[in-house]
Amino acid sequence: MVHADQPIVIVGAGCFGLSAAYHLLRRGYVDVTVLDRSFNLPAPDAASNDLNRIVRSSYSDSFYSGLAREAISSWKDVKEWGNTYHESGVLVLGAPMEEKTYVDQSYTNDVALGAVVQRLDNVDAIRSVFPVQIHTASFSGRTGFLNRDGGWANAGQGLSILLSKVAALGGKIFPGKAVKNLIRKEGRTVGVLCEDDDTFEAITVILATGSWTPSAFPQLNLGCACLATGQSIAMVQLSEEEADKYRLCPVVLDFSSGFYIFPPNNKNVVKMAIHSAGYTHTREAVSTPRTISSDPVDGHCIPKASLQELRKHLRSVYPDLADKPFSNTRLCWYNDSPDGDWVIGRFPADSSLILATAGSGHAYKFLPVIGRLVADLADNKLDPKVAGKFAIDRVYLGPDTSRSGPAIELDLDQLCTQQDLEN
Predict the structure, then answer these.
(1) Torsion angle of alpha carbons 352, 344, 5, 9, nearest 10°?
(2) Which of 281, 283, 282 is nearest to 301 (CA)?
(3) Shortest CA distance to 35 belongs to which of 207, 158, 181, 233?
(4) Is residue 134 part of a domain?
(5) Would 9 be classed as within a structural domain?
(6) Per-residue model confidence (pLDDT) at position 223
(7) Which band of pLDDT confidence, cut at 50, 70 and 90, is reported for residue 98?
(8) What CATH number corresponds to the domain at position 207?
(9) Distance CA 61, CA 66 (A)
């Protein structure tokens, strides 16, 4: 257990890192330092810094459903989060009846937890959840449900608010501090060494470095526990008049294809993506994020095949938008675990090193509460069952059932061009 006056260093100012810092400071820890490689925070290429993220409790795993309900309760507190959270509802679609076990279990968990949900067993029921002026696809053969206790969060805004909260509580935040090595003494981690040769001593070091974790710390030999994958995102810019038509639409999340799409944000941008196994970018035998920071010219480009897939799925929800040009794209880099569960645990044989990562594409919605799990671990108070679920060296019993794989190696010769966005 760490004492309240002992130094804790958190590497990474994203979802896991900032939430952990916040909860530690709230518990009375007085020497919490957050380091981040980016000179600008939130980091422009961090997965948790984006236009929006889905906020849903619709999980087939009741642990996440329950924790998401807690997070949603916090998101609704406008004194804490302002207008970060938008309760548009989440339309959850599945495959034909015999194939949609994930959706069925999600519905069961939502109902058990008291969420306001509406079963949608036919085409007319699905189309009824959209504003009457919206021309949707037919949704032929589809079923699903609408969870009204969910929606989306302005991801970048949420991170900025939490940065301010951490600073207000006395947390020390250092941007532009890329960590190049762990300082070890007698078999335990006692601090970090930065690229500029600054050192930070700590009784506990928490690595919350997201998709950069495997490549930044190859000495940890994380193997299959963490894999950096790029997820394809595209945006459509609407006029104010067009956006007003779609503004009251729910988030649409189709688990049969992985496609999801948001209502327009305050800048009239509609964002869509595919929740899939994604793309790897292998450098020195480790998948490494390729972003606008490492590749400013085309680090935002996604594969042409993904662009075509996104347009096809857009047509399957909003046909009137499917022929509009894409205004932008992004490869959003996740740190994935094989089973989709997070990694929140002490490193084997080194109890002073904690990993808080492997968000696997579904951590941001838990921003207000996920750091509590990390703080519980630091306090040696984490429920043993939960600790086992998120242990670094756990046995992986099965794949992430919310998406299919395997990941595909990124072909840099097949990235989309500006012309591709317009067709």
Answers:
(1) 70
(2) 281
(3) 207
(4) no
(5) yes
(6) 83
(7) very low
(8) 3.50.50.60
(9) 9
